[in-house]
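Hi V.,

Quick status before I head out on leave. The structure for the redesign project is tokenized and pasted below; the design run finished overnight.
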């Protein structure tokens, strides 16, 4: 199995409710290819209309280190998500 498949599987295990909306997974791979040698972590996603997810998202940001990226995107489902991760360790 390749690294992309493994990261996709990890994401779906952590966030099974987004299995059919692969926007987040595509977002990660559009910005961070396999040349990062695993230096991308602290992946986070939250539906903007879900208070609990947004609370966890903010807590996840506070646990991160080094560089970070967070973006607002609309998924194929029409839902709006805040997506992010840390990189460059």
């Amino acid at each position: 199995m390749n690294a992309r498949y493994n990261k996709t599987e990890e994401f779906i295990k952590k966030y099974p409710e987004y299995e059919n909306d692969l926007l987040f997974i595509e977002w990660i791979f559009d910005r961070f290819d396999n040349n990062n040698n695993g230096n991308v972590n602290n992946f986070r996603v939250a539906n903007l209309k879900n208070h609990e997810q947004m609370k966890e998202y903010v807590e996840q940001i506070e646990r991160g280190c080094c560089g970070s990226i967070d973006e607002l995107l609309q998924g194929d489902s029409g839902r709006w998500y805040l997506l992010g991760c840390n990189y460059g360790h």
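Above is the designed sequence. The radius of gyration is 13 Å.

G. will cover questions while I'm gone.

Best,
W.
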